[in-house]
Amino acid sequence: MSIHKTPLFLLVLCFSISATAQGLFRKKDSIVTKSLSESWELNKKDRTGTFRLNSYKPFYVLPAKWSNRINEMPQSVGEPPAFDEPVDLHSTETKFQISFKTKLIQSFLFGKGDIWVGYTQVAYWQVYNKQLSRPFRELNYEPELIINYPLNFNFLGFQAKMAGFAFNHQSNGRADPISRSWNRIIFHFAMEHDNFQIYLKPWIRVDSDAEIDDNPKISDYVGRAEANVIYRKNGHSLNLLLRNSLSFNDNHGSFQFNYMYPIRNNLRGHLQVFSGYGENLIDYNHYQTTIGLGISFVEW
């Protein structure tokens, strides 16, 4: 039986390699983890100036990501399917993400506020699909301009650390009928306590022309807010990302769970589980559950 038809084999193989590596390599150096102040340079001692590249969201590669219901007939709400026949996609593919940010302006608001620019790119690669010449199924590009202001007060047992908002654009760079894009103003509030960090992010979609909307009702599926809860200890990291449409009539959303465990230095094994709508833009109104296994390089 060929490997590309056995997703469970790929998952087991990847897990075995990671587990073996964890046993072979002694952890000589601790995982580099950062507080909110260090990640966003909130205190004077943490500031490094402008135009220096910093990590934003995790860098990771999941060589094996399996879907229980891969989207072979993408279509927007209220529109006909993009293709006449289902695309012969494999349920197992590779996913990877790169993400970075840099500070453009420092201490512009009452001597404390900063302006950052961030960029995240996520790829879904049908690398095991020889019949279709191993194409990239979906690429999502997400640039954003972030205004951030440090805070310092107690809130529900946590220490509030920052708040602000971002001008966010997300698109897949494709032509009709599978073009997907939207613009948002995303507000954020972050706090931490001991090994926990919590990000709360509600957003408002910037109105688009209804006649050329690539993804109508995307807020009803992907959501209107997210909560990101992160727990770190001894090089291990647990992350739960929840999104919800905040609608009582037709409630949708998703959850994504990430577990990262130390292998050597800053190299870590990475398990990711997703369930719900909108894992990516082409699947914004498509429900599925996915499991991915791979490695991470940079802490959140």
From TrEMBL:
<feature type="active site" description="Proton acceptor">
    <location>
        <position position="169"/>
    </location>
</feature>
<feature type="binding site" description="in dimeric form">
    <location>
        <position position="174"/>
    </location>
    <ligand>
        <name>Ca(2+)</name>
    </ligand>
</feature>
<keyword id="KW-0812">Transmembrane</keyword>
<keyword id="KW-0106">Calcium</keyword>
<dbReference type="GO" id="GO:0016042">
    <property type="term" value="P:lipid catabolic process"/>
</dbReference>
<comment type="similarity">
    <text>Belongs to the phospholipase A1 family.</text>
</comment>
<dbReference type="GO" id="GO:0004623">
    <property type="term" value="F:phospholipase A2 activity"/>
</dbReference>
<keyword id="KW-0442">Lipid degradation</keyword>
<feature type="active site" description="Nucleophile">
    <location>
        <position position="171"/>
    </location>
</feature>
<dbReference type="GO" id="GO:0005509">
    <property type="term" value="F:calcium ion binding"/>
</dbReference>
<keyword id="KW-0732">Signal</keyword>
<dbReference type="InterPro" id="IPR036541">
    <property type="entry name" value="PLipase_A1_sf"/>
</dbReference>
<dbReference type="GO" id="GO:0009279">
    <property type="term" value="C:cell outer membrane"/>
</dbReference>
<dbReference type="GO" id="GO:0008970">
    <property type="term" value="F:phospholipase A1 activity"/>
</dbReference>
<keyword id="KW-0443">Lipid metabolism</keyword>
<keyword id="KW-0479">Metal-binding</keyword>
<feature type="binding site" description="in dimeric form">
    <location>
        <position position="133"/>
    </location>
    <ligand>
        <name>Ca(2+)</name>
    </ligand>
</feature>
<keyword id="KW-0998">Cell outer membrane</keyword>
<keyword id="KW-0378">Hydrolase</keyword>
<comment type="subunit">
    <text>Homodimer; dimerization is reversible, and the dimeric form is the active one.</text>
</comment>
<feature type="signal peptide">
    <location>
        <begin position="1"/>
        <end position="21"/>
    </location>
</feature>
<keyword id="KW-1134">Transmembrane beta strand</keyword>
<dbReference type="InterPro" id="IPR003187">
    <property type="entry name" value="PLipase_A1"/>
</dbReference>
<feature type="binding site" description="in dimeric form">
    <location>
        <position position="214"/>
    </location>
    <ligand>
        <name>Ca(2+)</name>
    </ligand>
</feature>
<feature type="binding site" description="in dimeric form">
    <location>
        <position position="179"/>
    </location>
    <ligand>
        <name>Ca(2+)</name>
    </ligand>
</feature>
<keyword id="KW-0472">Membrane</keyword>
<protein>
    <recommendedName>
        <fullName>Phosphatidylcholine 1-acylhydrolase</fullName>
        <ecNumber>3.1.1.32</ecNumber>
        <ecNumber>3.1.1.4</ecNumber>
    </recommendedName>
</protein>
<dbReference type="Pfam" id="PF02253">
    <property type="entry name" value="PLA1"/>
</dbReference>
